[in-house]
Fold these 3 entries.
Entry 1:
Amino acid sequence: MSDPTEANGTAGSAEAAGPAQEGGGPGRHVRVVLVDDHRMFRTGVQAEIGQTGQTGVEVVGEAADVDQAVTVITATRPEVVLLDVHLPGGGGVEVLRRCAPLMGDTEQPVRFLALSVSDAAEDVIGVIRGGARGYVTKTITGTDLVNSIFRVQEGDAVFSPRLAGFVLDAFASTDAPPVDEDLDRLTQREREVLRLIARGYAYKEIAKQLYISVKTVESHVSAVLRKLQLSNRHELTRWATARRLV
């Protein structure tokens, strides 16, 4: 893995189209950190939006897991962090929790924009509750992503169209949204393992993804099955799919 603070991308693109040419505008500038556990995706985003002279976006750091993210964000103090939801070490919500003081800085706030392949309601609502200013999916174009970054820098809330409905539904009333008591029994790490199991990952793949041992994965799966009163991974997959956790 490369140095997590490395900011220089290589050839590649997050979209089929060429690098974003618009969004920043003359004289506009924003410092950004990319947080995603897939190096090729980070490289693609860097190539897509990181040509500062054209987009106004300067990528000042990268990170692949929660600990790296907190270290790089604290060291570089970017205006905006592009944050993947599913990360080794506790996920995007854990990054938000540990960076809460930076988000609350009145003079130089660090703002977060979730950029994820997931469009699950739980993921969207979770990071927004954690303090993110928006949530867009990885199907977004380079130009739209640049525009979203600048809007978040300015304090706006930004969502991919259908995802905004999840947030409106969750916060439309003054009553607290219903709590899923079964899901609430699981730890953050158990939820990560649950999602990966439900997506069809093998134990070895989950261990590699989360930087833990296969034995630890097995222990988490056993704990999840016990807490949810399920018998096997097929029942677990159906349970997760029914709750749109996959």
Entry 2:
Amino acid sequence: MALSTSSVITLNINGEKRTLPVDHRTTLLDALREQLDLTGTKKGCDHGQCGACTVLLDGSRAVSCLQLAVAAEGREITTIEGVADGDRLHPVQQAFLDFDGYQCGYCTPGQICSAIAVIEEHAAGWPSAVTADIRPEAGAPALTAEEIRERMSGNLCRCGAYVSIVQAVAQAAETEARRTGDAAEGELTA
């Protein structure tokens, strides 16, 4: 008996259940773009190296070109189309507009999804490769430009809008910290 190479799966995307048939080898990126017409998630390198296809899986960032669609079943998937609250932009989206954190805009959806996760990771106290004191009792490091650059390093911008992207992430993190009341004075220094 031959094994089936396709399945009908249900994905929870941006709070909506979507059922679709997929070949087991179909990436989440291709399912989003080609089958569900969610083209905000971009195909860049198709090797997981540029970050253009970054989405949020259960709140954590993931490069969708390396994620099989069948493996995403049962997980909460958020694409760029799902980060705004109706007509109200997500604070990261607004900061990208305010600081011109884009040029051609191709990498921007992945940058924004990654930045949302970066801010949450930082708020949860996760260290990065440049965090000086990684002891849990040290708490979250200051969100400096160096920290932001390191945390966003998986997302490439071929136009070179990095300075504006760092400023946008810092502003969005500050906005989120004020909103939640989590900012200690001087914590955000980018």
Entry 3:
Amino acid sequence: MDHVPGETSPDPATADVLSDVAPQLRALRRRRGLTLEAAAQRAGLSPAHLSRLETGNRQPSLPMLLALARIYGTTVSELLGEAPPERDPVVRADRSDPVEAGGWIYRQAGGAGRALQCLRVHVPYATRADIVRVHPGEEWIHVLEGRVRLALGEAVHVLDPGDSAHFDSLTPHRIGAATQGGAELLFVHTLMQSPAADLCLGDGTPHLR
């Protein structure tokens, strides 16, 4: 059989692992509602190539697993059938150290490595120098204290305590406090596996306070 880039013939040492990977690949593709042809096109493969991976006749390389994990919205660990470490569902206030990034001060309010990034944030007073951001995902904010100025495209909204906003973060947006002393809010967004420096929290490098 001809060699296809991105895959190798299985050997005895990997046979057990492959027996788990192949059905996982098929199950995850079907869970995403993708045909073999559609998934193969996204991965840059031929349908026959992907079919061989799903039946265990070929062994995917690590780059191939990474590409398929991205397409299926999962991790290589899940593709390999590895159980994720047990996560504590409770985030204790006294274990959440404040972190500063570009004048924003925030505390984790959710678990690490989740699809939702949940934070409690102190937002500084809005200025003209605040950066307008655009990135994939959705954001939700809920004002706890103070007032927040939210610019979405050409529209500007002022949110009072108890107000919320939920928006597509591909819309150009800018968030800042409308009160001199800043504002406190709950902040949730869906950008998976973002390091703290990549969150919409300012333009500086995060550091513990």
